[in-house]
Amino acid sequence: MNIDTGVDPNNKSAPIDSSDQASKNINSGTSKQPVFIAMDESDKHKFVQDMRNSNTIKKTETAVRQFQRWLSSDPRYITAEISEIPVEELDNYIGSFLLSIRKADGSEYEPDTLTSYHRGIDRYLRDKNYAYSMVQDREFSTSRAVLASKRKQLKMSGKGGRPNAAEPLTSDEQEVLKEKKCIGLESPQQLLNKMWLNNTVVFGLRGGTENRSLCWGDVSLKTDAKGTEYLEFNERCTKTRTGESSHSDQRAFKPKQYAHEIPENCPVYAYKEFRKRRPMDCCTPESPFYLAINYNRRPNSEIWYKNQPLGQNTLRGLMKKMAEKANLPGKKTNHSARKTTCTKLLHSGVAPTTKQQLTGHKNVQSVNNYAVASEEMQRNMSDILSSNNPYTTSETPQMQLQPATSSIQENAAQSTYQATSLSSLTSTCEISGHHGNMFQNANIQNCQIVVNNYSNSPNKPKRRRIRIIESDSE
Length: 474
Prior knowledge:
By secondary structure, this protein is mainly alpha-helical. Helix content is 39%, strand content 9%. It has a three-stranded antiparallel beta sheet with strand order 1-2-3, covered by helices on one side. Helix 5 packs antiparallel against helix 6, helix 8 crosses helix 10 and helix 8 packs across helix 13. It is globular and about 70 Å long. 23% of the residues are buried.
């Protein structure tokens, strides 16, 4: 057996150039041996660094820079490399650093910010092959105890409420975006905003990195067996699905956007319009999906966009600008669109495990973090507890709700929403002489409703009320 060693037989000391070897393989058409490119240790290290998440790198650099500033200041004046400091001293230094750091105006940081500093220093030490882990080893128990106590103190003082958290879009706010001409088909900016919002909400993309890395070929137009057109998203690398493992980095299905009969609400129609307005050179699979607007185009030109990607800062601020133009309340950022995906599905009764398959979360607990009652649900609960609900009087028949499925964990958010939605039962019905609005606009799914009416029974009390049976246990 002849083995291709990649060495010229006439000059065994001189390796064959990989490009020359590849050309010979292609020209000969017989050899199927792989070829190799020249690579040294610096190239390998640079490749690994380039594939790291850019936001994680920034957080690590910020944490280490602030810690080094603290070490070099009075009265410590320590300029040594962090990874060269003995573990006992480093543990005490980190604890003191977390206890003393403040914002530029002298106010306290949020608890999660301190944890971010702690984790950033830990990542730096791990990259330097430090012998101990700040998160696990007992050698860093002091700094961990300081962090836990500091978080507790901040929580007691009112911190930790996530004041800067993005808020999801309600259905009414999405309609306002249409009315205020923030999204639509009439101008380049409207169409660009519409495509971004469709992709982020329906595909469940993250508002920043995943949209910036989106290519034109990642979204394809297809037709199902019934002749309905739809858009299909082919996922590449994401925050949680990086491709590092071979089995757990695949979505259960490819997210889809199906056509709608009303053009202004149809994602397929908007996609076709967006495709028509792009330069032909930007319709290749590797072309950036979002393009910069050509403000110097001719008035009657059908091409609205330039042959260059939309700027990162512009893409990062799309939702904020739309919210300002439409005068939407609350804090709206690009993450608001992804939160809209999660909260809408949960409030509509979609099981967390099913929603997880769309959004790409690896852990179902991450999905449950979005299971926050909407403003309407909070208003209904307030009315119930404040006795302001007109359907909690003695005239209402007794009702019992029992989840029809046996999986309590998967349908916890669904059952909660179904029970809460009963506070607005308003559909016209007649039960043994009872007239009223009970079930209009109610969203009751996967439940068995038992209505017991004792108005005609002499042995039963005439008092009737709503009872919602719900258990917190498994």
